[in-house]
Amino acid sequence: MEVGNIEYEQRALSELASWKKKVDKKSGLFERASKKAQIKVNSYIPAKVHKVISESIRGMVEAVLSGSKYMSKEKNVMLLSLQQKEEWVKETISTYRRTAIIEGVGTGAAGLLVGLSDFPLLLSIKMKLLFEISRLYGFDPDQYEERLFILHVFQMAFSSEEKKMDTLRVIQNWNTGNHPEINWQDFQQEYRDYIDVVKMLQLVPGLGAAVGAYANHHLLEQLGETAINCYRIRLLN
User: Fold this and answer.
1) Residue-averaged pLDDT of the chain
2) Is pLDDT of 212 > 90?
3) Cα–Cα distance for residue pair 73/131, rounded to 1 Å
4) Distance of CA 76 to the CA centre of its chain
5) Percent of the chain with pLDDT over 90
6) pTM for this structure?
7) CA–CA separation, 107 vs 3, rounded Å?
8) In the list 35, 67, 159, 203, which could disulfide-bond 163, CB 3.0-4.6 Å?
9) At what angle do helices 208-236 and 184-201 cross, to 10 degrees?
């Protein structure tokens, strides 16, 4: 292996260790208070909104597990170094992030009914990104276990601290052949609780476009960082 590749992998391992520490960090007083406020806010969110989110997530989980959607073009990455793969991954994340921002501005500016459509649209963007990232790291999402891994990456990105730790243990043990199934009810509840407050602001007239752009940028950034580190765990362990 070339010296440059060794240095990059050492840097990637250091970044991975820092990311794990951030995941493992216990919530402070502000985070715990924010969680309580979020639960309170959730009780005021219209049932119609909860239903749209829940049905969108259920449909997404079923589509991923059945392999009926989100298939990406095969990428020939076998001869690429980790650095070359991740340069491609980061370019792909930037492309999808720009798409999500444009979509967030458009649906956020259009009012409540169109704003609700942002939830399934954003889910689709996120899943397509994860399928692309899977292939760029040299894995095959045509395989059921790889699609299952993608759902665990998604759950890792958008869950409570306790669930993140549980999911991190699953990911760290993935190469042992232990591939637990996804409980879609827990999956959708964790995702809803994670994004509800900021995404609800996207439905507010006058705020929608700005909030939609910010929220979608942040959520894609979060997903991209999580995916990179989850695949590093599999490749560098």
Assistant:
1) 81
2) no
3) 9
4) 24
5) 44
6) 0.85
7) 48
8) 159
9) 140
